[in-house]
C-alpha cells in the first residue's frame, strides 16, 4: 500500500516538474508532428528574418476587458503571442514585441484608431474589441545617397504597416500575414504593378442587381502589399517605375499600345498575362457598348513574335481533372469536362510558384504551344492530364451540354500547356516602330524576355476559389482553393520576394477524397454507357415513328398500326422504363458505396483505433507489473 502511494506521489511530482520545465522553456521547445510542419516557422520566414536590415517593432493590440468572456478569442490571442515570441527569438535582436491593451478612452485606444485597427463591438454596452498587429521600422538611411531628393527626405522616417484585425478563422494564414507585414515595412518603395484589363477586375456596375460590383478578391489582395496602378487601352508608353505589367484579358489595343508593351518586354520588364477563350466574367458593358470589353486575341501580334502559339477559339476538356457539378433537382451530379481542378500532378513541382499549392480551379481554359521558329524558350508550369482534348470554344460559351461533352469526348493522349513561361530571345513585333516612328530607346530584339502566360481569366474570379463575407465593413476572404495564392505567388516571384511564397500554401489543411472520386467516376462511366444506349434506342424509335407517318388513314390523319408494330412500341416503352430504373440503380449504388466507405471510416476512427490504443496501454501496464513481480 505504501509502495503504491509512493508511486502515485512520484508520478504527480514528475508531472508538475515536467509542466514547469516546459513552461520555462516556452516557445523555444516545440515538437511539430504534422505532416507539413504546419506549426513550425518555415524556411521562408527564417530567411526574411535573417535579412532584416533595420530593427522592426511589433505592437500587438488586444483588449483584455472586452475579451473577458470570449474564450476562443483569448485562446487564439495566446497562440498569436507565442508565435510572435518565436519570431523575436529567431530575429537575432532585430525584432521586438510589445503587448498593448487599448482600454476604453485611453491613449492606447487612440493609437490603435490612428493606426487603422478594427474596433469590433462585442457587447450591448458598447465595449469594443481590438485585436490587431502593427509593425514599425525606420526607412534605411542608405536612401539618402541614391541621388533622389525625395528618397533623401524619406530616409529615417518611420514606416508603418498593420493587420487591422486578426481573425481566428484565418489562423492557417497567420504566419504568411505576419511575415509579409515585416517584409513590407522593410521596403523603401513598394513594388508597382501596372494593371490593364477589359474585365471589371477592380469593381464595376452589375446591371442585373443595379448595384456596384466589388473588386475581384484575387486582385484586391494585391492592393496594399503592392502599388496597383490601372492602365488604359489608349496607353502609348509604360512608366519606368512599373515593376510588373499585369494583363487580364485586355481589350483590343492600338498599335501604339502594343508597341509600348512590346518595348517594355524587350527591356526585360516582367509581363504577366491572363488570356481566356471564354471569359465567363466578361462585363455586359462591353457587349452594350458602355466600355472596352476584353478580347482573347488582343495580344496575338506580340505572342507571335514571342514564339508562342495561341488559338482563342479552342478550349481544353480534361476528363481526369474535371470537377463534379450539380445539375439540379432530380438529376445526378456530373463531371464538367470544361471545369477543371488541377492538383499537384498537374503543377510543376520544381517551380517555386506552384511547388506547395494543392488545388487550382479553372474554367473554359485555353492552351499555349511553342512555335517552330521560336527564338525563345517555352517552359510549361500548369498542364492538363493526358485524358484531355481540344474543342470549339463556342460549345462552352453558353454553358454547354455536359452529357454531350462526355459523349463526344475522345482523349488526345497528350498534355496541353495551360500556363507557360517565355524566356530568352525575341524580336520586336514593330521593328520599324509605329507608322515609321520609333521610341528614343527603341529595341529591335532582346535576350532577356520574361513573360508569364496563363490561358484562363476565370481562375481569378471569386466563384472558383473563395467565399467573401463582410465583417463590419471589411471584406473577409475564406478560400477553398489556391487560386488567390497563385496570383500572389506570381506577383511575389516576378516583383517581390520569393521567400514569401513558401508560406502561403500552409493554409491548406483539407485533402481531396480520392477514393470517393474514384467511386464517383466508375459509377459515372456506367451511367454514361447506359445513357448512350438509351439515346441510341430513342433515335431508332424516332426513325420508326417517322416511317409510320406514311401509314396515316386518308385525310383523317389517324395512325393505324399493325399488331406487330404495336407490340414493338410497347416493348420499347417497357425497355425504356427498365433502362431508367437501371440509371437510378447506378446512382443508388454510387451513394451506397460512398456511404459504406464513410461508415467504415467512422467505425475505424471511433471504435477500432481507440480500442487498439487501450489494448496497447493495458499491455504496457501488464508488462510493467510482471517486471515488478519478478
Give the SSE map.
Layout lengths: L1 H24 L17 H8 L5 E7 L8 H20 L4 E6 L6 H8 L4 E3 L6 E11 L10 H6 L3 E6 L10 H12 L6 E6 L6 E3 L4 E3 L3 H4 L6 E4 L13 E5 L6 H12 L3 E5 L9 H4 L12 H7 L1 E3 L3 E5 L3 E4 L8 E9 L17 E4 L4 E3 L5 E8 L4 E5 L1 H4 L4 H6 L9 E11 L17 E10 L11 E6 L2 E6 L3 H13 L5 H4 L9 H35 L3 E2 L4 E2 L3 H67 L1
Parallel strand pairs: 1-2, 6-9, 6-10, 10-11, 11-21
Antiparallel strand pairs: 1-4, 3-4, 4-5, 7-8, 12-17, 13-19, 14-15, 15-16, 18-20, 20-21, 22-23, 24-25
Give an account of the 3D structure:
- With 630 residues, the chain is α+β, with helices and mostly antiparallel strands.
- 37% of the residues lie in helices and 22% in strands.
- It contains 16 helices and 25 strands.
- It has a seven-stranded mixed β-sheet with strand order 9-6-10-11-21-20-18, sandwiched between helices. Strands 1, 2, 3, 4 and 5 form a five-stranded mixed β-sheet that branches.
- Helix 15 packs antiparallel against helix 16.
- It is globular.
Amino acid at each position: 500500500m505504501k509502495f503504491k502511494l509512493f508511486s502515485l506521489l512520484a508520478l504527480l511530482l514528475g508531472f508538475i516538474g515536467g509542466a514547469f520545465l516546459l513552461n520555462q522553456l516556452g516557445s523555444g521547445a516545440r515538437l511539430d508532428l504534422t505532416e507539413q510542419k504546419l506549426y513550425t516557422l518555415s524556411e521562408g520566414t527564417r530567411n526574411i528574418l535573417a535579412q532584416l536590415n533595420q530593427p522592426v517593432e511589433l505592437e500587438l493590440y488586444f483588449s483584455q476587458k472586452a475579451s473577458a468572456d470570449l474564450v476562443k478569442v483569448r485562446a487564439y490571442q495566446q497562440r498569436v503571442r507565442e508565435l510572435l515570441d518565436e519570431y523575436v527569438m529567431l530575429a537575432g535582436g532585430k525584432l521586438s514585441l510589445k503587448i498593448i491593451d487599448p482600454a476604453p478612452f485611453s491613449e492606447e485606444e487612440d493609437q490603435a484608431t490612428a493606426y487603422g485597427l478594427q474596433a469590433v463591438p462585442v457587447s450591448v454596452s458598447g465595449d469594443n474589441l481590438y485585436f490587431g498587429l502593427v509593425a514599425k521600422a525606420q526607412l534605411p538611411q542608405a536612401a539618402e545617397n541614391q541621388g533622389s531628393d525625395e528618397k533623401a527626405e524619406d530616409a529615417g522616417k518611420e514606416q508603418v504597416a498593420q493587420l487591422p484585425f486578426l481573425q481566428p478563422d484565418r489562423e492557417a494564414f497567420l504566419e504568411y500575414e505576419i511575415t509579409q507585414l515585416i517584409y513590407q515595412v522593410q521596403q523603401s518603395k513598394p513594388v508597382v504593378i501596372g494593371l490593364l484589363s477589359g474585365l471589371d477586375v477592380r469593381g464595376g456596375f452589375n446591371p442585373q442587381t443595379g448595384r456596384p460590383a466589388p473588386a475581384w478578391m484575387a486582385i484586391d489582395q494585391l492592393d496594399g502589399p503592392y502599388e496597383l496602378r490601372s492602365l488604359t487601352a489608349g496607353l502609348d508608353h509604360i512608366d519606368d517605375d512599373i515593376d510588373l505589367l499585369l494583363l487580364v484579358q485586355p481589350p483590343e489595343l492600338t498599335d501604339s499600345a502594343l508597341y509600348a508593351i512590346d518595348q517594355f518586354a524587350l527591356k526585360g520588364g516582367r509581363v504577366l498575362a491572363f488570356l481566356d477563350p471564354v471569359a465567363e466574367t466578361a462585363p455586359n458593358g462591353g457587349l452594350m457598348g458602355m466600355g472596352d470589353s476584353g478580347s482573347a486575341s488582343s495580344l496575338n501580334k506580340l505572342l507571335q513574335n514571342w514564339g508562342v502559339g495561341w488559338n482563342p477559339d479552342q478550349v481544353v476538356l480534361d476528363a481526369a481533372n474535371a470537377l463534379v457539378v450539380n445539375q439540379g433537382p432530380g438529376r445526378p451530379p456530373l463531371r464538367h469536362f470544361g471545369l477543371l481542378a488541377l492538383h499537384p500532378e498537374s503543377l510543376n513541382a520544381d517551380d517555386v510558384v506552384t511547388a506547395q499549392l494543392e488545388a487550382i480551379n479553372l474554367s473554359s481554359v485555353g492552351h499555349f504551344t511553342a512555335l517552330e521558329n521560336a527564338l525563345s524558350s517555352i517552359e510549361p508550369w500548369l498542364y492538363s492530364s493526358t485524358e484531355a482534348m481540344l474543342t470549339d470554344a463556342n460549345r462552352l460559351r453558353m454553358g454547354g451540354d455536359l452529357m454531350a461533352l462526355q459523349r463526344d469526348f475522345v482523349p488526345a493522349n497528350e498534355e496541353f500547356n495551360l500556363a507557360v513561361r517565355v524566356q530568352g530571345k525575341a524580336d520586336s513585333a514593330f521593328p520599324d516602330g509605329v507608322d515609321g516612328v520609333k521610341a528614343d530607346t527603341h529595341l529591335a530584339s532582346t535576350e532577356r524576355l520574361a513573360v508569364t502566360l496563363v490561358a484562363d481569366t476565370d481562375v481569378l474570379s471569386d466563384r472558383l476559389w473563395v467565399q467573401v463575407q463582410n465583417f463590419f465593413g471589411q471584406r473577409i476572404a475564406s478560400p477553398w482553393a489556391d487560386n488567390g495564392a497563385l496570383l500572389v505567388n506570381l506577383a511575389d516571384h516576378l516583383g517581390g520576394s520569393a521567400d514569401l511564397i513558401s508560406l502561403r500554401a500552409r493554409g491548406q489543411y483539407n485533402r481531396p477524397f480520392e477514393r470517393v472520386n474514384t467511386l464517383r467516376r466508375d459509377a459515372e462511366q456506367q451511367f454514361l454507357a447506359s445513357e448512350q444506349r438509351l439515346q441510341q434506342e430513342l433515335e431508332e424509335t424516332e426513325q420508326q415513328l417517322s416511317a409510320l407517318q406514311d401509314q396515316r388513314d386518308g385525310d383523317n390523319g389517324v395512325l393505324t398500326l399493325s399488331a406487330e408494330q404495336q407490340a414493338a412500341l410497347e416493348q420499347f416503352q417497357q425497355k425504356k422504363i427498365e433502362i431508367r430504373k437501371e440509371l437510378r440503380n447506378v446512382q443508388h449504388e454510387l451513394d451506397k458505396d460512398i456511404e459504406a466507405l464513410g461508415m467504415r471510416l467512422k467505425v475505424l476512427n471511433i471504435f477500432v483505433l481507440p480500442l487498439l490504443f487501450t489494448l496497447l496501454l493495458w499491455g504496457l501496464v501488464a508488462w510493467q507489473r510482471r517486471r515488478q513481480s519478478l
